[in-house]
Amino acid sequence: MTLTDYVKQVSLEDFGLAFEHHAFWNQRLRTTGGRFFPKDGHLDFNPKMYEALDDLTFRKIVRHELCHYHLYYAGKGYKHGDADFKQLLSQVDGLRYAPKLEEWRPRYYYQCQSCGQIYPRKRRMNTSKFRCGKCRGKLVLLESS
User: How far apart are CA 40 and CA 111, in angstroms?
Assistant: First the structure.
């Protein structure tokens, strides 16, 4: 079964409406489960979410994108903040936010020499350019992993 066929099946079973466009895998997606494109009506999905999550959770991601799709073509509020979107999403039990796949771990730790405030960072920073946000003291690199 292709992704488009799966999305069509979910649309009919959970919404009672037909999905008449295409669904694609998009390798470039990182933190989002999927995307809806109003311009041409297609949906993109994150293959990493499909591989890492169980079937029910991925189905809830598909429902989320189908909420955007069906509300857009019904002429109702299809954006995340719209009441129509929130109501339909709760009716079909879709996910509001995509689950995090990997935890963020800091690689660098900086400490203020004056007040002792610690700053975990993913990327290295120039300590001659940046100062402590609390007391404007000098920062020093503690450790890197």
Answer: 50
The residue from 51, 65, 103, 143 that is catalytic is: 65
Query: In this structure, how many other beta carbons lie within 10 angstroms of the beta carbon of residue 33?
Result: 25
pLDDT per position as a tens digit, 86-101: 999 999 999 999 988 8
Active site residue 51: no
Q: What is the pLDDT of residues 128-142, one digit of tens each?
A: 999 999 999 999 999
Residues 93, 118 contacting (CB under 8 angstroms): no
For every residue of the chain, which 3-state class applies, written as one string?
Answer: CCHHHHHHHHHHHHHCCCCCCCEEECCCCCCCCEEECCCCCCEEECHHHHHHCCHHHHHHHHHHHHHHHHHHHHCCCCCCCCHHHHHHHHHCCCCCCCCCCCCCCCCEEEEECCCCCEEEECCCCCCCCCECCCCCCEEEEEEEC
pTM comes to 0.73
